[in-house]
Design brief:
about 170 residues, alpha/beta, two-stranded parallel ribbon, about 35% helix, globular
Length: about 170
């Protein structure tokens, strides 16, 4: 078994007697497509934090609620020089989880939700045009978007747990 991170390797080793090898994933931003912020309909003059996640990846594990709460704690509503961009895919608009998630965003115009499907070069472009990346996950197999943000020279705030600890301090 090839594991993409030391964390995954340890988990596989606990679950099987098969040989498990660490095979870190390659990360590149060379396919990124540069766009101005107006392309993504995000504020041009705010310091923007970004979190990209898939609704199919178990919300409890991705933990966007913690990102929203931390943003609000760090920056009370009167601070309009900052914003939070949440890029989400695979949302089921009828699910109770989605409805509860939308309630978290209510009444804070500094939080921008992007639901449309973007191709990989445009996701990278979104990462590039924001100022910092944040992931308060409860488990991350590797942490590709964290690594990509770091390749763009962005400040990255993340949980000190799981796959990303292989490449983050």
């Amino acid at each position: 078994i090839w594991a993409g991170s030391s964390f995954a390797k340890t988990m596989y080793e606990k679950a099987t007697k098969l040989p498990v090898h660490l095979m870190p994933l390659p990360v590149s931003v060379s396919r990124g497509r540069r766009h101005p912020r107006t392309y993504f309909k995000v504020p041009e003059h705010q310091f923007l934090f970004l979190f990209v996640f898939d609704f199919n990846s178990h919300l409890h594990r991705k933990n966007p609620e913690a990102v929203i709460k931390a943003f609000r704690m760090a920056f009370p509503k009167k601070e309009n020089e900052v914003g939070l961009v949440l890029k989400v895919m695979n949302a089921n608009h009828e699910s109770l989880e989605w409805i509860a998630f939308l309630k978290l965003l209510k009444d804070d115009l500094r939080i921008k939700l992007i639901e449309e499907t973007l191709d990989r070069p445009d996701v990278l472009g979104l990462i590039e045009c924001c100022d910092a990346y944040v992931s308060l996950h409860r488990g991350e197999g590797f942490g590709r978007t964290l690594a990509e943000a770091m390749l763009y020279g962005k400040s990255v705030i993340a949980t000190h747990y799981s796959g990303n600890v292989d490449f983050m301090e």
